[in-house]
Amino acid sequence: MRITLPPALQYRDYRNFWFAMLSAVGGFQILTFGQFWLIHELTGSTLYLGYVGLASAIPAITLNLVGGVVADRFDKVRLITFSQTVSAMLVLLLALLTGSDVVQPWHVLSIAVVAGAVNAFNQPARQSLYPQLVDRSVMGSAVALNSSVWQGTRILAPAIAGVLIAVFGTASAFFVAAGMMLVLSIVVNLLKVNSQAPRRSSSAIQDVGEGLRFIRTNPVFMFLISMTFFNSFFGMSYIIMMPVFAKDIIGVGAEGQGVMMMAGGVGSLLMGLWLGTRGNYDQKGFVVIGGAVMTGLSLAAFALTSEYIGSFPLAVALMAVTGVFTSTYMISIMSSLQMLVPNEMRGRVMGFYGMTWNIMPLGGMFAGALAAATGAPWAVAIGGFIVAGFALGPALMSSQVRNLGQTLRSAEKIAASGA
Questions:
Q1: What is the spatial distance between Cα 378 and Cα 145, in angstroms, rounded to a whole number?
Q2: Does residue 193 form part of some domain?
Q3: Is 354 domain-assigned?
């Protein structure tokens, strides 16, 4: 029986890029696991776990817009190569410090800050490059496959990291992560793509302002990026609260937490792979709105049934459902943005998108403060209701969002005609 590749993987350069991303993101996930493990070994403090997350997130949030400007002004291939190599070298430094038994908490935090800053330039460039590797007609497939990389490695990489640390020590995880991250630098240089952006006479500050005005004056972009913000800040905060659910509410411990998180990852991965076999599809606006509503309601159902029913199998099932709906609407948002954004604006728009996506640790702090007043279940449920409420309110009332599928078809026809 002949195996048919998903539409985007039928393009050789995208296929090579996708496998390199699989390696690089897997390395990043191993690094993340190792960082939290190491800081806990060194301090035994849950507060320091939060510090590591913030150390990575704050530079990414503050510099993503600048990274988007750089991606629009300079050669994306060189930018990815340089930033990815620097990231790998930072991880290698952490490996050497750990293997030499001289590592201190401030080393971990400092490297996390610098790595987060570098990623603020790497992420917009990656998001701007891969649309050049496929035809616009298969953009939905490319975005879905990119998402599946993150979801798949989220399931497998922690297990790999755990085995490496248990058998060879913590430093080994960082050595492996550095090597895996370096693969992307090598492969990107082999891609046949003209990624040289026209240099601009305007200043970087003017470019940032131009990007923000573009988003603010285009209702579709404004709504889609706002939905990403609501999901990151209010919806994804449940991840920070999961130890409370596992230990104190459902009573299943760390193993049960791992099963619940894996269920969410499997749901996201399966939906991402399924969407990756499809091209663009109709009724995308209602898919975005419906997926956001169901994500919010699924989260609220998980939180409240955990509190009042306490069923572990039900919690696992609701986590899987949440993963399915989250992938459905976040992949639809990303593919829509990639199809509609002009090439000369792609880096800045993706930089702003990345800024909203990276805001999750701040949302976790908000959820933690809310949980202190209401309890973790109601904090997570309120976040879910806010996500669903925004989708049912401003987004549903926007005709541009409701008619998103028609807008995308028009853009596709214009691109096909060469207009």
A1: 34
A2: no
A3: yes
